[in-house]
Amino acid sequence: MKQPLLIKLGGAVLENEQALSNLFTALTTYLETEQRPLLLVHGGGVIVEDVLNKMNITSAKKDGLRITPFDQIGYVAGALAGTSNKLLMAKALQAGLSAVGLSLADGFSCKVTQMDPELGAVGISSANNPDLINHLLAGGFLPVISSIAIGDDARLYNVNADQAAITICELLNAELVFLSDVDGVWDAQKQVIPELNTQLADTLIAQNVIQDGMAVKVKAALQAAEQLGHVMLASWKNPENLVSLLAGQAVGTKVIK
Ligand SMILES: Nc1ncnc2c1ncn2[C@@H]1O[C@H](COP(=O)(O)OP(=O)(O)O)[C@@H](O)[C@H]1O
Ligand SMILES: CC(=O)N[C@@H](CCC(=O)OP(=O)(O)O)C(=O)O
Known about the structure:
The protein is α/β, with parallel strands linked by helices and about 260 residues long.
């Protein structure tokens, strides 16, 4: 089997019907020419916000990670493993892709432990058993994976979707592309940085030029680049760029170790 391609989709795409359709059209075309195993790991922070707002719950983040009290995990799991996952499934199926909706727990794919008691039901995931996902890929299915996990304590955990993506990437040794709502990582002048290494990333994070969710994403990308050599970060707003991006052309930000 060829090296799988893992695309991590930021949740904001779920609020952009046209971008989502364009993305799945581009992916279908890519798969027709490349015939390569493909899987998606997705976020859905915007859907979580929406659900919590409707419940009159104000949600806070610490260092880009959502503080998730255990009595809110049901809403968060519903928003991520439910609504977000099924909205993406719907688009994938509509595009003719044989999608299968999963979470990190299915088939014991990933393990999770509590990250920090202050964050509540926030988990840190680790790779465990690739068999289920490999079976699906070998069968020509498209796994669509949410970042909800189940701990050894049988509790549900909310894992940041960028961190979930690198765990799945480690599990399968997949090539990794992060697609977000921005065209790459910006410098202080909001220009896309073509190539980002650990040293530059540390400096820009310390200067708050890279912050919030992007700081979490860049740290995850650097961790994955340790194993993979590089990780690409681009926008889901230009899915037609995906082919050039995968061919190594200058699109978005290339994160190297
Ligand atoms: N230096 C930066 N470059 C680009 N985006 C940044 C930067 N610092 C902070 N951001 C913010 O990070 C957001 C992307 O992170 P996040 O919302 O977590 O994405 P996703 O939902 O795709 O995982 C951007 O929309 C932007 O507002
Ligand atoms: C712990 C934590 O922060 N979990 C995230 C999971 C979803 C996510 O990461 O979504 P995006 O990729 O769309 O940002 C959250 O609750 O928002």
